[in-house]
Amino acid sequence: MSYCKGTFIVLIVITVSLITLQSWYLSRWWPILGNEQAQLVQSWGKGEAKERNDITSKKVEKNKAKEGSARAVLQTDDDTIENLAVILNKKLSDFPSEKGGPTKKLCDRAKSGSAPCVNTTCPARFSSSPETRLKQILSTRNESLHSFKSAMAEVTRDVSASNKYVLVSAASANHYHEMQAMVKDVHTHLFPRLTNFTFIIFDLGLSPLQRNLTEKNCGCTVLDFPFDKLPAFFSILRCYTWKPMIIRSLIEKTEFLVWMDSSVRWNRTAKSLDSLFQRCKERGLQMWFGSVGSVAVRTQHDMFSFYGDQPCQYDPFGELHASYGVYHNEPFVRYAVLDPWLSCAFTRRCMCQQNAKRSCSGKLVPRRTGVCHRFDQSSLGIILIKLYGGRMKLINMNTQMEVRRRDKAEWFTK
Ligand SMILES: *[C@@H]1O[C@H](CO)[C@@H](O)[C@H](O)[C@H]1NC(C)=O
Ligand SMILES: *[C@@H]1O[C@H](CO)[C@@H](O)[C@H](O)[C@H]1NC(C)=O
Ligand SMILES: *[C@@H]1O[C@H](CO)[C@@H](O)[C@H](O)[C@H]1NC(C)=O
Ligand SMILES: *[C@@H]1O[C@H](CO)[C@@H](O)[C@H](O)[C@H]1NC(C)=O
Ligand SMILES: *[C@@H]1O[C@H](CO)[C@@H](O)[C@H](O)[C@H]1NC(C)=O
């Protein structure tokens, strides 16, 4: 009898320890989750999870039908919160094993520089509800966006909307030789592998001769950027407000938009193009996360307050590289990702603050947030981290392109 009682007590102790360990692990492992979500995850049996997925996919079927008919008339009304939330939930539940995101390493104010780390005393947390996070992002959309979109529609009106892929870049006079090297790389690695595409380069201030030689050699269409129709600060090129403007406008013309800065090289990515586009279609977009710098360190505080967040929430997340990315033309990407991104571009204190410092160099001891700013890149990072609930692996490319700043060429012929 006492033997039995002993075993019973040992079993109880083991069970209690396991439960405690599991909830500790869940809340520790994903700092974005409050305890509330950790409990939620625990309380989900397999049956319940399956049922949720069934409901989600039924809704998606219904919305797909709606989307099909809406597409036919081109004007859509699928930017409702309800519709976008269904799509977001589906994207999150379709790849349950791809959870990877923020680091688990704890911050040490005395030691660390700009690397991502978990700030255990951060008073703010992300909501565990995708709908709530989606609503927060959508609430930053600027209504005056519509009046400016027409400027870009005018610029891109002659771009045919019949291509599956749009490859797009932009260059100013001081990036002319870098851009030539990029064009050469695109001709070598993308042109032979893609069909049904068009290549566009925006002129952000090339000299007349540079423009002439680009048009002659690039195998692309060179378009003007409508600076005169946009707020004056769009001319401050280092704020990169032009990038969300170009991407948001051009995505209407294609199925996949491939953005590349003039420093981007494809020579080790071109092999896996099919899987890159397949992933993009399923997940909405493909970016590259995994920079050595934390979003919290490399983003000005004003931008976090624009999003209603505190910098320390973003401590564990590495920046994304906005130098390249593949965007799928679908309502979720247009309305929940690109419109909010462009809205930030239109709000000076969000993307283009007067005193924003690009350089993060120098000793960062003690560790602090808001040291420098990454403009377009900071903003897109915040939007995606929030929407995808920190599961950056979901939208991370399975391959990395090369960014070779100052890799130049004299490739265009006179
Ligand atoms: C964590 O965030 C809080 C609030 O912003 C800040 O006061 C504290 O210094 C941060 N801790 C570390 C280790 O960075
Ligand atoms: C090119 O792609 C578009 C959009 O995906 C498609 O509608 C069109 O039929 C394709 N054209 C050719 C020639 O394959
Ligand atoms: C470039 O300039 C040359 C000489 O002025 C001219 O003949 C040619 O048509 C121009 N090419 C383009 C694409 O504008
Ligand atoms: C890609 O091209 C650059 C030159 O533009 C070269 O230095 C680099 O080694 C190449 N990378 C690979 C993986 O081939
Ligand atoms: C919306 O964009 C306009 C144009 O740039 C800007 O003046 C305005 O402040 C923005 N509104 C908000 C709420 O950010």
Automatic annotation (TrEMBL):
<keyword id="KW-0812">Transmembrane</keyword>
<dbReference type="InterPro" id="IPR012444">
    <property type="entry name" value="DUF1647"/>
</dbReference>
<feature type="transmembrane region" description="Helical">
    <location>
        <begin position="6"/>
        <end position="26"/>
    </location>
</feature>
<protein>
    <submittedName>
        <fullName>Uncharacterized protein</fullName>
    </submittedName>
</protein>
<keyword id="KW-0472">Membrane</keyword>
<dbReference type="Pfam" id="PF07801">
    <property type="entry name" value="DUF1647"/>
</dbReference>
<keyword id="KW-1133">Transmembrane helix</keyword>
